[in-house]
Amino acid sequence: MARTHPSMQELIGRRRRAGFVGRGGERAAFRENLDLAPEDERHRFRFHVHGNAGVGKTFLLREWEQIARERGALTAYVDEGADSVPEAMAAISRERARQGGEFKRLDRALASYRERRHEAEAVAAALDSVADGPSPATATAVRAGLAGLGLIPGAGPFVGAVDPDLVGRYADRLRRGLSARFGNQDDVQLVLSPERALTPRLLDELAEAAAGVRWIVLFFDTYERTGPFLDGWLHDLMTTDRYGALPANVVLVTAGQHPLDRTRWGGFTDFTAEVPLGPFTEAETRGLLAARGVVDEPVVAEVLRLTGGLPLLVSTLAAQRPTGLDDIGDPGATAVERFLKWEPEPARRAVALACALPRGLDMDVFRAAVDTTDGPDGAGGPGSPGSLGSPGSAEETEALFAWLRGLPFVDDRGDRLRYHDLVRETMLRLQRRRSPQRWRERHERLAAVHGRWCEEAADGMRPEAAREQKRWRELRLERAYHLLCARPRTELPGALRGAVEACRWGRADGRRWARMLEEAGGAADDEELRRWGQGLRDALVDDRQGVTRAVDLLLSRPGLDLSGQALAYGLRGRELLKGDDARRALAAFDQAVASGERAALPDTDLSRLHRGRGLTHRALADLPSALADLDRADALAPGSTKVLADRAETSRLAGRHEAADSDFGRVLILDPGSVSAFASRAVCRHALGRLDEALADFDRALDLDADHLWARIRRARLHRDRGEWDEAFRDLDEAVARAPDLAWPASERGDSYRRAERYEEAVAELGRAIALQPGYASALASRGATLCALGRYEEALADLDHAVALGPGFVWALVHRARCKRRSGDEEGAIADLRLAAEAAPDDVGPHAELGRALWRSGRHREALPVLRRVTELDAEDPSAPALLGAVHRELEDHPEAFRCLDRAVALDPGHGWALAQRALAALETGRTERALADLDRCLALAADGGGVHGPDAEPVWPVLAACAAALTGLMTAPGADRAGLAPRLAAVEAARDADRARYAS
């Protein structure tokens, strides 16, 4: 229903503006600027007001805002309530809504940003969970391959003060992990560079709004606090096309205590206007007093003397309309007493003083503050003159709140009221000095109220869930403020511990906590608190390195107790891990866990430290240690979905798919909508051969989130392994369609073309992936393998060389380069590459097996022996390794060892035709004719049935059969030989030999 009458707030605002006298030149300059077209060279696109506290900067901005609105402008007002660029944009959007419009696209993007920030934390903790393209088999090799890939790294909330190369490598891995999770590059950009992603949306909204109005004026107050993170953004917004076009009919106004940064803005004086503010001139002071009916010359002279022309003090005294010197009072009295001298009601005076204690006021805080007031004689409590506990208190509360809102030194910010800093500081100083005991008691009561509200806000939530709630964090912050005001030194360790936690939540929360410490230091007149606040504020200015610098500061100075140190070391470990410096991160987490156990931290905090150390062990490929820490984290905080998900993922990486499947199941009980849990459990079930269950999980994940790129591509791999090529390529085509500018889906589709032997399509698609992401090692390696299959060895080796150069430990690329070298006749080069691969992956059976076969083929049998023994150690159930090892021993005429190995191979696989042929040959060589004939009969039967009698790397078995035929021929010529019995077998062996040779010849 439309309002037909102005609100109370609007009426109060009109009355206050009607009384605005002074700053005539500044008002006229702003008004004239709005009368000039943007194309006029005299027009200024930015105004910057600066001056000391109390000179009237906020009053002037509010007057300019009204002038702009009178000219039909849309306006927005942003103050220190915003602690980041996204929060400033959110404030602009809220202001637009208050004026009857909406920035729908920006609001949706901001909501998505908040949601994606939480999801990104899980992705950052599990970067190893996505292995794209042809990847090495172990976690170590996975990281070796990833280290060679190179998207342009983005700076974002996860980058700390570490070596730039490490930052780049981490940002690359994070970008790809987020790409896999979100499937949408816009969402990836949103998390990594929110300003870059959100600002174009703001500009689109401003452009659309600007088309229907003459002006849009954006006001940024308290710039001394917001400028450190807003100034560079505003500079880019106005002077570059980094984010897009800013409408020409937008005017920006900033106001703070300091002049413009000449280094940044010195070259743009032709479109900016600096407005320095000082005290009112005598004429302006007299004019303001006259407008309020204060014309008695002795009174005017005394006001001039007492205020020094400071606009805030002049306005406050003028509002009381003194008619004589007695109304002004003793010149030696406090400023607060002068401000409130003309208020006849003691209750209102007490309320005005009490409401200065909180940093901001809404109705709830107002009630709590008023409930702490004492009467004029110091007595308080319900029914006392200063208490609202008397009958009719609800009406009295409303009336008092309206009265307070109208005071000249109270800034009405819509949902909250805030005293002007100068007046508040004076009122706080008065109360602290007048009665230190009452000061302490009042702050303790307010702290208790905020503590109760904290408990209510967290009711029914797990601790971690409560900490993610903005209201809970705000209440906790204000509780800490009041405790510090009551007992600065006693509460400092707890407050610094809170600062560590705030930095863990993010830079914006850290900045709020730093400002709180600084303001508490001013309120309590405690220099140590002020220094802590200022130091943390300065550290957190840096968007890239702020959290790390803040932690370094907290750990370098006395103040943190043992609990706080434990949490700080944990935060340092997290930041180092994000910077890909896992070794140093592990040392930090070791300190964190040790300190936390000595300090008897709460189980939830200890669990978080063990979880962080577990993830660090995982990053270092120490999966057993990682699982031990994650087990401990789960024992300390049972049922934490984050811990369960991390342990499940670590078990998956360790090949413990049954355990991972169980933990993912527990995650899904707690969070039935967890897309990542469904997708990861599907991968585990795929590995376990439970293909139908895996497919059902993948389907469920994609039903919940069709943009989940990792799930879609892993489902394509499942379809591929089921031989369902049409379904596999359908998923891959969809992945590419959803992320056409992302290299990973293109690389996956290209590699699937390779596996399907659609080589020309593979070369084209892998080339597209490389064009999208130059230096993409996996795509280069896959294209190299494809070109090798096409016989284009020179091109293949160029790609494989490039892939290996990007990641020297990239095992898959080394193995395929070895194969390509072998096919092109470079056997020595192939063996050298396989040695490098085996060294890079000492626990990976694949490179060792391939090296063993290469050495065997080249006749380097003694070199092959230790390699093949290692293969049997790594995989004791594969019959191929003992079969080849037996063949090597036979070539070395170590027949007892040959028989032992070949017996093992046949025991593992009774149908292993190649092992049977080798054992038959060994038997013939040692005169064990009957055993040889039995093995040959089994081998020939397998060949007749189409069974596998191929050798290593699917090489022909006919050379072994030829050797057997030669040995049988020799037996037939021996005296007393059973020629009639041997002849049919010889004929069968020769026939099998010739058939196999003919098959390979074709």
Quick structural gist:
Helix content is 68%, strand content 3%. The chain is mainly alpha-helical. The N and C termini lie far apart (87 Å).
Characterization of this structure:
The protein is mainly α. Helix content is 68%, strand content 3%. It is built from 51 helices and 7 strands. It has a 5-stranded parallel sheet with strand order 2-3-4-1-5, sandwiched between helices. The chain has a two-stranded antiparallel sheet with strand order 6-7. Strand 6 and strand 7 form a beta hairpin. Helix 32 runs antiparallel to helix 33 and helix 47 packs antiparallel against helix 48. It starts with 7 loop residues before the first helix and ends with a helix. 49% of the residues are buried. About 7% of the residues have low confidence.
Q: Helix coverage percent of residues? A: 55-70%
Poorly predicted regions are: 127-170, 329-334, 375-392
Query: Order of strands in the sheet with the most strands?
Result: 2-3-4-1-5
Please state roughly what percent of the residues sit in beta strands, choosing from under 5%, 5-15%, 15-25%, 25-35%, 35-45% or over 45%.
Answer: under 5%
Q: Describe the main β-sheet briefly.
A: 5 strands, parallel
Rg calc: 38 Å
What structural class is derived from the secondary structure elements?
Answer: mainly alpha
In round numbers, the mean pLDDT is: 83
Shape: elongated
End-to-end separation in angstroms reads: 87 Å
Instruction: Give the number of DSSP strands.
Output: 7
Number of helices: 51
Quaternary state of the chains: single chain
